[in-house]
Amino acid sequence: MKIIKKNKLIMEPKSTKRNFPIVCVGGSAGGLDAYTRLLKNMPPDMGVALVIVNHLRQVATLLHEILPQHTEMPVKLITEKLDIKPNHVFIIPEKSDLHVLNGEFRLKPISKPWGWPDVITVFMKSLTKNWDGKLIAIIVSGYDGDGAAALCGIREVGGITIAQKPESAGQPDMPESAIASGCIDFILTPENIAKKIMKIASEESENKDIKAKK
Predict the structure, then answer these.
(1) What are the contacts of 169-172 at 24+ separation with CB within 8 A?
(2) CA–CA separation, 44 vs 152, rounded Å?
(3) CA-to-CA distance for 155 and 76, rounded, in angstroms?
(4) Whole-angstrom distance between the N-terminal and C-terminal Cα of the chain?
(5) DSSP codes of every residue in 157-170
(6) What is the pLDDT of residues 156-214, one digit of tens each?
(7) Residue 109, SS3?
(8) Among 63, 84, 83, CA closest to 75
């Protein structure tokens, strides 16, 4: 923001506080089906930032080219220091661990270049430390159990955790691992996950309006 003071133009420091909800959707094999079913049922103006963390290691993602066909929200491949904005869909790039700091995305070289990656777990843990707003963590179709280790931490900071209903997933390993963590609040199909996100976002907006009027 620009302000004028004593005939001088001064750049007001950019606020680092972000208090809108972030929705982290973690998946891998079979995830595309879940992502598209989710996005098709989400309006573009809920006031949340949707971050899709597909645990790829070396293969370049095409999600930022495919998913715009299924949502009116802008879909962006994440780059270093990209500003996090509501009503956007953000996609993790390959070969990267994803973090947040000062309202921006931060990328680091992937910490597990071999074996099953844990990029979903890494990102969720960063959110619990560095995000002011509501957290919604979702685990959808995929192999292995990436993300499960961070779910209890999401709940400890007041976040909501959701697993895709295993029988609705192409690969149920990741949802089943999430459920086995004991820290899942809801087990839903992608369509019902979208409804739950809308309800949570609406409640958050109402709470902010109430606080603003006090």
Answers:
(1) 169/30, 169/34, 169/140, 169/141, 170/29, 170/30, 170/31, 170/33, 170/34, 170/141, 171/28, 171/29, 171/30, 171/141, 171/142, 171/143, 172/141
(2) 29
(3) 27
(4) 26
(5) TT-EEEEE-GGGSS
(6) 999 999 999 999 999 999 999 999 999 999 999 999 999 999 999 999 878 776 666 66
(7) strand
(8) 63
Residue 114 is predicted with a pLDDT of: 73
Q: Where are the domains of the chain?
A: 16-213
Among 72, 95, 100, residue whose Cα is nearest residue 84: 100
Question: pTM of the full predicted structure?
Answer: 0.88
25 versus 11: the higher-pLDDT residue is 25
Give the single-character DSSP code of 146: T
Count Cβ atoms below 10 Å from residue 1 Cβ, excluding itself. 8
> Which residue, chain included where needed, has tokens 């990328």?
107
CATH class, 16-213 region:
alpha beta
Strand runs labelled E in the chain: 2-5, 8-11, 22-27, 49-54, 75-77, 88-91, 96-101, 104-109, 135-139, 160-164, 186-188
The four Cα atoms 174, 176, 181, 186 give a dihedral, to 10 degrees, of 100
For 36-75, what is each residue's pLDDT tens digit? 999 999 999 999 999 999 976 555 688 999 999 999 999 9
